[in-house]
Every structure is written in structure tokens, then in C-alpha cells.
Amino acid sequence: MKSSVTKFGMNAPIAPTTELAAAAGCVLLSLLLVAPLHAKTLNLAYDADPVSLDLHEQLSGGTLQFSHMVCDPLLRWNQELEFEPRLARSWRRLNDSTVRFTLRQGVQFHSGREMTAKDVAFTFERLKNSEDFKGVFANFTAANIVDAYTIDLVTEGPYPLVEHTATYIFPLDSEFYRGVDELGRDKAEIVKHGDSFAATNISCTGPYTVATREQGVKVVFERFANYWDIDSPGNVSRIVFTPIHEGPTRVAALLSGGIDFAAPIPPTDLARIERSDRVNLVTMSGTRIITLQLNQKRKAEFADVRVRRAIVYAVNNAGIVEKIMKNFGTAAAQQSPKGYVGHHPGLKPRYDLKKAKALMAEAGLADGFSVTMMAPNNRYVNDAKIAEAVAGMLAKINIKVDLITMPKAQYWTKFDERAADMMMIGWHSDTEDSANFSEFLVMTPDQESGYGQYNSGNYSHAEVDRLVRASAQQTDPEKRAKMLQRVEKILYDDAAFVPLHWQDRAWAAAKGVHIERIVNVMNFPYLGDLVID
What is the DSSP letter of 479? Predict the structure, then answer.
């Protein structure tokens, strides 16, 4: 007997922004799924554990996965990429710049306090002040409290992505973070890669609390007894989360029964799982773009567009997908995957070694030069192997690469330091919109606005900046699509970065652990709703 495989494709285009006021999705789910009487323990293994308990210290997939375990957002995406009401039970647009959210009443924080609009406003201001998140909220000017359970989000003119952005707002307990701790630290302060109260303490509204945590070893989550969502089918009362860095080791633990749920699943282990009679495999088409950024401030050669183009032409990303990813991905030529509003159908991968060498010669660099490269070894599927392959490919145009790979906990500090000439970055648009890629990865770095926060290449193009900013206030879908497709064409012609591939997603779990109902293309498993037989 073989394991069953559940496959999901991308759902596109994204659902239009509309007024929604019903929790029908939640009700339907509660009717379809009836939780067993006895609570269960889930033994979970990802490739790494959260680097911090502060939701606003780092904008990353790991942080958002953790957020959905211990908190709840105002809205969240479902598997059909539609908005589902969570802490906001309804919302409606008042005018071009204001959307009113009506909050659920009786929602408790883990501290026992009731959540109100005051906590949403506190969280909004904290997001606006976060180095990583303020770019997401750059178009928002205020969160105005109407009453205890009503709040207005106000934007600077028309903005088509208010609901999208509300998926980032996980209300925190404002009283819990008020004042200073016993060490005299401001409880609400965000300290990036540093020591802070918020990095090790949290009070939120989600299905789980953090019972114990040993960084890099194990995190134990316990079900919150007063969790507001009584219609949730979830019956997991305890989660033991053990980070297992190596993919084959993680898969071996799953197949042997040592853990119940593993992610990500390396492409090389998919067949191994499919042959098992103990586990089920779930796969989805992916929208996370994996790239390499070229730091033009650190390396003068990268300021020459001919050199950047030569590098793009030298990298056989289709070969990487075939040989290293085992076709568990799609070679990319742009940021936006098919189905996104900014996807440009005319842009294709362009491996051409002969052309790469000619461009190097044209730039007067036929003899090449040396660069440093850094990449994580446990953040993206096969990340270290991909970096090694790219280094080998660049050697063919006489670019000598000094490559260093490291665990993601160390890598993000180095990334923020811009510590190498070439750095790997993967990005999934958590707003499910093309502009999000550009806002963080290619817009001119600006500390005040937060744009370009993850642009380690220091790439800058005035027209790209103008178009992305203009798209934020364009509510005509056709006009907005043309703007964002123009951005992709500029980036392609300018070889702004090295596009590698869109990474597919795979999860696996023991039979009877129904992950197929709670995983999604964003890779934020809604573990609060998980049912175990």
C-alpha cells in the first residue's frame, strides 16, 4: 500500500477586493469536520524554529507561521485565496481611503484580558515602526478607534490592498507590553537580532501558548483553554516542535514514526514518502521566488548592466530545477508567478553561456573577477546546493565565487549587514500581490518608508520606484496590471537580480493527521484547526 498524495494547483487570479461580512467559511468548515472527543499531541518538525517571539522583529515565513500558531489576524487567506474573517467579524469600505473593521467581542488574550480596538491600534503603530513591516504599511496613515469593537484603517488616498494588508495584523496585548520589565527594558521595544522583552515573551489571542522554549532545540505549545474560536475543528492540545535541519533526517523521523508532521519535504525524498504506507504527502504549486541579489555598492563590477546580464545568462536555472529540485519548481525570469497581476507572459528564462561570455568580454572583464557569496543552508529547499551550483556556473565566465553557507538563524544577521557581494533571498508575497515583491526586494532602500528592506543588492531605478508607488493607489485592475508588468520588464532588461525559480511546496504527515485541510500556498499551516484521528 502506498501513501496518498494530495495535489493543489495555484488559484488565480486573486479574488477581487469586496465588502465581506459573513463567516460562512468558518461555519461550513465546522459542519464538515467534527473533532474527535480526545485531544491529541502533535510532534512537529520544520527545518528551523522561530528566531524570536517578537512578531515584528523579522518579516519572514517562519515568523508568520509562528504568528498563526499563537495569534490570530484580522483576516486570513483560505485555500482558495479568498479572505476569511478572523478577529474582524466584518468589514466595509466607507470611502476611497477608509475601511471599517468590526471586531469580535469576547476574544481573550492569553493574559486573560479582552481584546479591543485599542490593542489593534497598538499593534498597527508597532507595525508602522518595525524596520521590516513598515514598508507593508507605508500607504496607511492611521488606525482610528471608533469604539471598543470598531476601528478604521485609513490610507493615503485610494489603496486596493487594505484587506490583503489586514492579514498581517495579529493584535497583541497592549497592556502586556506596557511599561518596562525588571531589567528596565521597554516591553514594547522592537530590537532586531537583539535582547528584548518581546523577543522572549508574548501575549496574543491564538490557539496555542508557548509553554517552554529552548532556542534551536525544542518549543512546546499548549492549547489555550479560552480560545475564542469554539467552531474550530482542531483537537490538538499540545504541539512538540523540534527543528530538524537536514531534510533526509526530518523525513526519516517521519517515516519511522518519531514525528507526525514534517516540512519542507526535499524533492529528493518525495518518491520515498510516496512509497510509504505510513504517511500522506500533500503538494502545491509554489509562488515563492528564489533569487540572488548583486550588491552594486560592495562590488563595482555589478554596477555595469552588461556584467549583471552576463551573470543571468550564465546561470542555468532550468537545469537547477531539473537536476537539483527534481522538477519540484518552475524556472523563473521575473518575480511574479503566473496568475499574479504583474506576471509578464513575454519574459522567459534566458540561459545562454555563449552570450554570457560575450557580455563579459564587452565589459572588458573576459578574465573575470572574484566575489563573495552567502546563502542559508536550511531556509529554502536545497538552498546550499543551489548556491554551490551557481558558483560552478559562474566559474565558466571566470567569476570566482567564495561561498559561505550557514543556518538561517545566523544568515539573517549577515543579510541585514549586507555581508557578501551576492546574497540569496527567497520571497513569497504574503499579500498575494506582485507589488509586494518589488516593495521589499528591488525598490530603492529607504529606511524611513521601509521600502527596499530586503534589497541587499542596493538596486535602484527611479521608474520602478515610481510605478510601484503609483500602483498602490491605482484601483483599476487593468491599469494596475500594466504598471506592474512594466516593472517586471524593466527589472528583466536591467538584470536587477538573478531569478532562479518558484519553489513548489510539499508537506507530509502520518496517516490520520489531516494536514490537507490546513496547509496553503502561503505555507502558513493553520495548526489550530488540525484534526488528528
Answer: H
In angstroms, rounded to a whole number, what is the distance separating the alpha carbons of residues 415 and 108? Answer: 37
Q: What is the mean pLDDT of residues 167-193?
A: 96
> Is residue 356's pLDDT more than 60?
yes
pLDDT tens digits for range 420-442: 999 999 999 978 899 999 999 99
pLDDT at 38 (0 to 100): 56
Check pLDDT > 60 for residue 257: yes
Q: What is the pLDDT of residues 463-512, one digit of tens each?
A: 999 999 999 999 899 999 999 999 999 999 999 999 999 999 999 999 99
Positive or negative: CA dihedral 32, 36, 41, 43: negative
CA dihedral 247, 515, 502, 478 (to 10 degrees): -170
- 352 pLDDT exceeds 50? yes
C-alpha cell at 41: 499531541
Contacts of residue 397, Cβ cutoff 8 Å, sequence gap at least 6: 310, 311, 314, 353, 356, 357, 360, 368
253-283 as b/e: b if 16+ CB within 10 A: bbbeeebbbbbbbbbbbbebbeebeebbbbb
> Under a CB-based contact definition with an 8 Å cutoff, are residues 189 and 207 in contact?
no
Please list, in sequence order, all residues whose beta carbon lies within 8 angstroms of the beta carbon of residue 482, skipping any fewer than 6 positions away: none
Contact between 294 and 456 (Cβ < 8 Å): no
- Per-residue confidence (pLDDT) for residue 286, from 0 to 100: 87
CA distance 500 to 503: 9
DSSP run (H or E) holding 280: strand 279-294
Q: Whose CA is closest to 411, among 377, 457, 458, 441?
A: 377
Three-state DSSP class for residue 209: strand
In the block, cell 518552475 appears at 330
**What average pLDDT score do residues 253-265 get?**
97
How would you classify the pairing of strands 218-223 and 236-241?
A: antiparallel
8-state DSSP, 264: P
C-alpha torsion 485→486→491→493, nearest 10: 120
User: What is the pLDDT averaged over residues 440-459?
Assistant: 95
Mean pLDDT to the nearest integer, 28-48:
65
Amino acid at 10: M
Q: What is the mean pLDDT of the chain?
A: 92
Q: For residues 373 and 384, what is the distance between their CA atoms, to the nearest angstrom?
A: 11
302's grid cell:
555589478
How far is the C-alpha of 62 from the C-alpha of 47, rounded, in Å? 10
Determine whether 491 is exposed, middle or buried from the number of CB atoms within 10 Å of its CB (0-12, 13-18, 19+): buried
